From TrEMBL:
GO MF annotation: an example: ATP binding
EC numbers for this chain: 6.5.1.1
Species this protein is from: Nitrosomonas communis
One BP annotation, GO: DNA repair
Domain ATP-dependent DNA ligase family profile positions: 335-459
Pfam families, per the entry: DNA_ligase_A_C (PF04679), DNA_ligase_A_M (PF01068), LigD_N (PF13298), LigD_Prim-Pol (PF21686)
Full protein name: DNA ligase (ATP)
Top-level taxon of origin: Bacteria
Length: 844
């Protein structure tokens, strides 16, 4: 019976001529079912849609290709079943053979039927969920009742979060016109004529993959350079802490290593080792870098952990600290557990189990201090066994998961005991030695606020206690860095700037948010302090009961801070490489800085769902699908009621970015004081031809005039043409009072210097002058939020600066998505902190 499944397939082909695989029925499976879509230029160009079932690929030819618009009904003609090996076929079917022409692997991944597939097929309605690089969410295949001898079905997109409207879907297939596996176009495949020897097959054999021939050979070089790899694989995948280890067969389990997480980037024999905090630590782990450079790869990206063994032969973080401090690289070893890229091919869209199989092949010949990280199938008491051998715990990973540069629930960690990183905010000197630590005051960040977590007073020997004291005393500060009060100690605390991290184990969290029975394990230098948050184990049961489809990072989606960004490859800024994914990545990076400026404020936002070259529109009211952290509020003003929105937390910013939001504009008052603004804004808007130097002089003029009435102000580059001057005030005055003050202030300037300023909105009167826009100081009026992108050519950003920094800038749109760096972010963080602390009384 099983042979009959592929009888028709085999009868149509001469395997002495065609490069297609012979028809052999594969192993039957009911989970981790695969799907593939192959773009096929035969007599007519079509998309072959294939679903694994009964050890073969059930197949349909979709003439117009899949559509993300649920209103579209795409004809899908049933064709013969294909063998499982056909999933890896990309090449050219020879002339005079059935289906002659080039074939591209357009998408691949896994599919999950909502009911028994045999039953659904018999009923003529197959409903399923897809997790691919380009195909996502729920889909339907519905059989048509027609007299046609062919078995005709219709492919329809389900109505879910991934669905697009007709406008959004219009250019979907035009944009997605390359191989999901090799990145080649149909012309590349036609010219190469590789047949069944695909780029993927070459990678599995560890043969160097040559770049596909293109008209401009130079253009293909950067794709595998170290710089390109460092940018492409920006973040590691992180596991979610859970309260128990998953036990079903969908998971594999690895030992949780107690060391430094690294990503290794390899190209042409050169290696860069980068930490989670994106620090280049190649020099600290030279022996690992040397061993990785010797591997039989042309270019690659590995995920690994650097560790050291203690005197008992167990992996211990303290032993790693000693090895680094004593410059003993020979004591450091690396366990490699994932492979993201190999010889020009991105592997993040491959399943974990396939990536690990390929990784194991590569590491079989490895020499020196690097090892393949073995994995285990699910078994009872696996965590207990790991704990007994001294491991920190387990990391459990879904076999069919793709690689996501984010924290994900497809990887979960279960620990033998509680431990995590904390930021040091102070110290208590030792009893016997005043230049040694007796205890450390620990904290973490919650809603961007540094929160006290308790003390640790054990785990450091005398020499280490002196060493840590010397490192911390240089950071001494007179003021406590903690948001909340710290309990009084036996000896006086010395507070320090929260810049140093440490690893601490403890028994439990108390009800008031303190750690109990803590023990110091070592200092850490691989992460940013702001990235340290409270780790509370999530319920595995609740996670697995969540039926909502999750999107994994792949060629078709990415996720940041738990928010899935669909179609990240969509170009947002025309004539650039700035995509929706890059916009979301930016907002994920600056959200901690940006959120305080939208926290508890009503906002309006500019959405450009098809990029800034398409239609953009302002929105200020809620609608279905904006996200769970985007909330609605009804505001009554002068009898009339109005609906507005606000974001509840940092996630809300990313949820709006997922919906195509580019710009964020906020009110000058908070929800708590919605009738009384807590800041004043003067927007300097120059007429065409006015040099930016004149705008800066006008800003200084406003600053000086404000100082005369006792008000400190802060400048911001608007990201457009002008500068915003913002004054933080106590929320004591009504909107009308504030508007009157700003009107009088602006009109006085215009009267005193009429040749330079105008305070009237009339375009005619603004000719050759700078318009002092005070109209943003009114009920429901908004101004661009600091750190918000602008929907303008160049991807400029509204950016807070100091008055000294303002002098050096030559234009208001000087800060762009392409030129922000660590220094700019740090400076902006300091300016923002000063602004947020300030609160002045406005005397009217």
């Amino acid at each position: 019976m099983s042979r009959d499944l592929l009888k028709k397939y085999n009868e149509k082909r001469d395997f002495d001529i065609t490069a297609e695989p012979k028809g052999k029925v594969g192993k039957r499976a009911k989970t981790n079912l695969r799907f593939v879509i192959q773009l096929h230029e035969a007599t007519r160009t079509h998309y072959d849609f294939r679903l694994e079932w009964h050890g073969v690929m059930k197949s349909w030819a979709v003439a117009k290709g899949p559509s993300y618009d649920p209103a579209d009904k795409r004809l899908a003609v049933r064709t013969e079943d294909h063998p499982m090996d056909y999933n890896d076929f990309e090449g050219v079917i020879a002339e005079k053979q059935y289906g002659a022409g080039p074939v591209m692997i357009w998408d691949k991944g896994t599919w999950k039927p909502e009911d028994d597939p045999d039953k659904m097929e018999k009923d003529g309605h197959i409903t399923f969920t897809i997790e691919g690089g380009r195909m996502k969410g729920q889909w339907h295949l519905v059989r048509m009742h027609t007299p046609d001898k062919r078995e005709n079905w219709i492919l329809i997109k389900g109505k879910d979060d991934f669905a697009l409207n007709k406008i959004e879907n219009a250019d979907f297939l035009k944009r997605e016109n390359t191989s999901i596996v090799t990145g080649r176009t149909m012309d590349d495949i036609r010219k190469a004529g590789l047949g069944k020897t695909t780029e993927r097959t070459k990678a599995l054999k560890l043969e160097p993959i040559k770049p596909v021939s293109k008209p401009n050979k130079e253009a293909s070089k950067p794709t595998t350079s170290l710089d390109a790899l460092l940018k492409q694989y920006d973040e590691p995948e992180l596991a979610t802490l859970v309260d128990q280890t998953p036990e079903d067969d969908a998971w594999i389990h690895e030992i949780k290593f107690d060391g430094y997480r690294l990503m290794a980037f390899v190209s042409d024999g050169k290696v860069v080792l980068r930490t989670r905090g994106k620090k280049d630590w190649t020099h600290k782990f030279e022996s690992l870098a040397k061993a990785i450079a010797a591997l039989n790869v042309e270019n690659a990206v590995f995920d690994l952990e650097a560790c050291a063994l203690d005197g008992n032969g167990r992996i211990a973080f303290g032993a790693l600290q000693v090895a680094l401090s004593n410059d003993e690289p020979e004591k450091i070893e690396g366990w490699i557990f994932d492979l993201l890229h190999l010889n020009g091919e991105a592997l993040i869209q491959e399943t974990l189990i396939d990536r690990k199989a390929l990784l194991e092949l590569i590491l079989k010949e490895a020499k020196g201090p690097i090892h393949y990280s073995e994995h285990f199938e699910s078994a009872p008491d696996l965590l207990d066994k790991a704990c007994k051998i001294g491991a920190e715990g387990l990391v459990s990973k879904k076999k069919d998961s793709l690689y996501c540069g984010c924290r994900t629930k497809d990887w979960v960690k279960s620990k033998c005991g509680l431990e995590q990183e904390f930021v040091i905010g102070g110290l208590m000197p030792g009893k016997a030695h005043d230049k040694a630590i007796g205890a450390l005051l620990l904290g973490y960040y919650k809603n961007n606020k540094f929160t006290y977590a308790g003390k640790v007073g054990t785990g450091f020997a005398r020499e280490l206690a002196h060493e840590i004291y010397q490192k911390l005393i240089a950071l001494k500060t007179d003021k406590s860095p903690f948001l909340d009060k710290t309990p009084r100690g036996l000896r006086e605390y010395i507070y320090v700037r929260p810049e140093k991290l440490c690893e601490v184990s403890f028994t439990e969290w108390t009800r008031d948010g303190r750690i109990r029975h803590a023990s110091f394990k070592g200092l850490r230098e691989d992460r940013s302090p702001k990235a340290v948050v409270e780790e509370i184990p999530q319920s595995l049961k609740e996670m697995t009961n969540d039926a909502k489809p999750r999107m994994k990072a792949s060629a078709g989606s990415v996720a940041f801070n738990g928010v899935t960004i669909t179609h990240p490859e969509r170009i947002v800024y025309p004539d650039t490489v700035i995509t929706k994914g890059k916009v979301a990545e930016y907002y994920a990076k600056v959200t901690p800085l940006m959120f305080p400026f939208v926290d508890k404020r009503l906002i309006s936002f500019l959405r450009c769902t098809d990029g800034i070259g398409g239609e953009c529109f302002f929105q200020r009211t809620a609608m279905e699908g904006l996200g769970s952290s985007v909330k609605s509020k009804t505001v009554t003003h002068k009898v009339n009621k109005h609906e507005y929105i606000y974001v509840e937390d940092e996630v809300g910013i990313l949820q709006l970015a997922q919906m195509g939001t580019i710009e964020f504009h906020a009110w000058q008052s908070t929800l708590e004081h919605e009738g009384k603004p807590d800041q004043i804004i003067f927007d300097l808007d120059p007429d065409e031809g006015i040099p930016f130097e004149a705008v800066k002089l006008a800003a200084e003029d406003i600053r000086n005039r404000l100082e005369k009435v006792g008000l400190v102000s802060f400048p911001r580059l608007s990201g457009g043409k002008g500068v915003h001057i913002v004054v933080p005030i106590k929320p004591e005055h009504e909107w009308d009072e504030i508007k009157e003050f700003t009107r009088e202030f602006s009109e006085n300037m215009a009267r005193e210097v009429p040749e330079a300023y105008v305070a009237n909105m009339s375009k005619k009167k603004r000719a050759g002058k700078i318009f002092i826009d005070f109209f943003r100081n009114d009920f429901s009026s908004t101004a661009i939020v600091p750190f918000s992108l602008r929907a303008r050519a160049g991807a400029s950003i509204a950016w807070p600066v100091t008055w000294t920094e303002l002098k050096k800038y030559k234009k208001a749109n000087a800060i762009t998505l392409e030129n922000i760096d660590t220094k700019l972010l740090k400076n902006a963080e300091k300016v923002s902190a000063e602004f947020l602390k300030a609160s002045q009384k406005l005397k009217l």
